[in-house]
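Hi there,

I know you've been waiting on this one. I reran it after we fixed the sequence typo, so this is the corrected version. Both the input and the resulting structure follow.
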Amino acid sequence: MKKALMTGITGQDGSYLAELLLDKGYKVYGLKRRTSTENIENIMHIKNEIEFLSGDLSDLSSLIQAVRASRPDEVYNLGAQSFVADSWPQPVYTAEVTGLGVLNMLEAVRQEQPGARFYQASSSEMFGKVAETPQRETTPFYPRSPYGAAKVFGHWITVNYRESYDLFACSGILFNHESPRRGIQFVTRKVTDGVARIKAGLQKELRLGNLEAKRDWGFAGDYVEAMWLMLQQKMPDDYVVATGKTHTVKNLVEIAFAHAGLKWEDHVVQAAEFMRPAEVDLLLGNPQKAKKKLGWEPKVSFEDLIKMMVEHDLKKYGQ
């Protein structure tokens, strides 16, 4: 039986990846930070099938113990301070967890289980002020947030460990990927939850930032399959995972409100407090390498993804 150790298991991606690995017969270990309130909503349905290990990405000794206890064949590092907007008021914390946390995890693997295959969750936010469109594996990075800068460090330290210590270490440069399990602070979920609340009469308006920002959005359940595929290859490599299609926040708003039978113009307010200090205007990925080498294809369309999320949130508010 193959064994996998995962950080960020309670998050959106972690929960979908845990499901995938359990379906494939893996023994799944999840690293869990000690928090005063437990947040395991995303994995409630599978929590009895997961073995939890205590640890924190900012504490190397706890990671060494977790690797020693699990002896994993595969390690998936999905844990991070993952909300871009929070990285400006919390830049040091973001750097420690999202950046140095990757180094700590790699070092724990190098010391305890150098034969394990390692996956690092890189991000399209590393491209930031983009040098070319669409963005590929070779596109230069120009991060526009402390989060993006921390992810660039995590990405390059993974490359360094691969080349210095011959570790099987891969990075997936994932473009925006969403689902009903997405955190409420992210714009897609903020919109679908807002639509459901407006429909239920719980609020009247939805305050948003830049409606013209363009993103390449896909379904998280599709994207975790690409993570797994990367670690099944003969050689480690880095891959852009994206749909290759772009949509504006306004597109997202239009689909979400229309699906609930509402007119978005009656409810959406553009608010200065949600504008970023440095905006990333356009992110569009070129997933050709992942399609060709991994045989990966996104299955859920943007429209179906937004409708799935609206349905989930309508149900939550009894609509």
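Quick highlight: The mean pLDDT is 95.

Best,
R. S.
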